[in-house]
Design a protein that fits this description.
Elements lengths: L1 H73 L2 H9 L2 H8 L2 H6 L4 E5 L5 E6 L22 H5 L7 E7 L2 E9 L12 E7 L2 H11 L3 E5 L7 H9 L6 E5 L6 E8 L8 E8 L1 H53 L13 H36 L5 E3 L4 E4 L1 H6 L9
């Protein structure tokens, strides 16, 4: 019974400590994931948004450079005279050669009068300079393309991205003016650059992240683009999300509208999840250190409890049990210290002292009573109805015996 009690005390104590430590560890994990993990996810999202903004800025720089080339050629006397005189051979063979277009990375060029008549147009492949069919989008300059003719009455042009034959193109247009810029416009110069895989690779090299796109009209056939497009709002133009929770890459999405007001493209950048992976590593390292600290704390706490509390309580219990089994009322508990356990031991010893004194008083009382009975001149006989159990000397003499022990 005592062994079961002591085992139960130790087991119960260990259970309480284990439950408390498990709860503490669970709270630590929850706090770590909620605060530390969430912070790294927010940092990753912010970093990816900044990366997308840098990508859009880099793309805008490319468009601005294209616009600068368009302005340089458009606000130039030879170009102005070319539109007036329409001397194609004299102008194009000198200023619009394949080498010149490749040098400024222009794949499409068109000179258009304010009435929409195309004086000269050409499209080339920037990889090898071979001629390509001009986009069907520019067969005429009415409808959506009228935006290019409207700038003929202005002094500044337009630039951006358009969809030409289902593919994006960087575009810049500027009114054709005299070099002084003071003359009336005699037409519009349009320069374009096919936004193909080569341009995507170049943009990725400039930004440091792989870049891809899909036309907005085709977003439905690309699930991740479609979801990002549906999540975009005026307040959240850039969407950041991984393909899956286990993916080691995170993607940023942004929409670029067609310069003419229609649907353009959805741009996507591919960013490694270094921030979250570092955060997960740091969180695991933190949890491992916490586990070691909590384990060490638990071991020290159990050792101290065993040494200063459990072992002393069990020792008192064993000593008290030994005294109870032997009936030695003179034995006392060994007590050390001056804490509550020591006070309990002293209280038990005080109780044993009271019990010993009570037993001594009882023995003395019994001896006095027996002496009184023995010397009593009256016969005192105790029987159970069938036989005599006890009689004093007077009773034995009354029954004809001299020794009461016979009864």
């Amino acid at each position: 019974m005592l062994s079961a009690y002591t085992d139960s005390l130790r087991v119960t104590t260990l259970k309480i400590i284990a439950i408390a430590l498990v709860i503490l560890l669970a709270l630590q994990i929850t706090v770590s994931e909620f605060i530390i993990g969430r912070s790294f996810y927010e940092l990753e999202e912010r970093s990816t948004r900044n990366a997308m903004q840098r990508t859009l800025k880099t793309l805008q720089n490319e468009i601005d450079a294209l616009y600068g080339n368009a302005k340089d050629y458009a606000v130039w006397d030879p170009t102005y005279e070319f539109i007036e005189q329409r001397d194609v051979a004299g102008y194009v063979d000198v200023h619009m050669t394949t080498e010149a277009l490749l040098a400024i990375r222009v794949s499409y060029v068109a000179f258009v009068t304010p009435a929409g008549e195309t004086i000269y147009t050409r499209r080339i492949d920037l990889r090898d300079g071979r001629d390509l069919p001009t986009p069907a989008e520019f067969a005429s300059f009415d409808g959506d393309n009228a935006v290019f003719l409207r700038i003929a009455a202005q002094t500044e042009g337009v630039s951006g991205v358009i969809m030409a034959d289902g593919q994006p193109m960087l575009i810049a247009a500027h009114p054709i003016l005299r070099s002084t810029g003071a003359s009336d416009s005699c037409g519009v110069l349009i320069l374009g650059r096919d936004f193909n895989d080569d341009e995507l690779d170049r943009l990725g090299d400039l930004t440091g992240f792989p870049v891809s796109f899909t036309p907005t009209a085709n977003a439905a056939i690309a699930p991740d683009f479609d979801l990002a497009y549906r999540l975009m709002t005026a307040d959240t133009p850039i969407i950041v999300r991984p393909m899956s929770f286990s993916d080691d890459r995170v993607y940023g999405y942004a929409q670029i509208n067609d310069l003419r007001g229609g649907e353009g493209i959805i741009l996507r950048i591919d960013v490694p999840r270094d921030i979250v992976q570092y955060g997960q590593f740091s969180s695991r390292l933190y949890m491992l250190s916490m586990l070691l600290v909590i384990g060490t704390f638990a071991a020290v706490m159990i050792l101290l409890l065993e040494r200063n509390v459990l072992s002393r309580i069990i020792a008192l219990s064993l000593q008290a049990g030994r005294i109870g089994r032997t009936g030695d009322v003179q034995a006392r508990l060994i007590v050390t210290g001056n804490d509550e356990i020591a006070q309990l031991g002293r209280a038990i010893n005080a109780m044993l002292d009271d019990i010993a004194q009570a037993a001594r008083r009882l023995a003395e009382s019994e001896a006095r009573y027996r002496q009184l009975v023995e010397i009593s001149p009256e016969a005192i006989i105790v029987h159970d109805g069938e036989r005599i159990i006890y009689t004093n000397p007077a009773g034995a003499h009354l029954l004809g015996h001299t020794n009461p022990s016979h009864f």
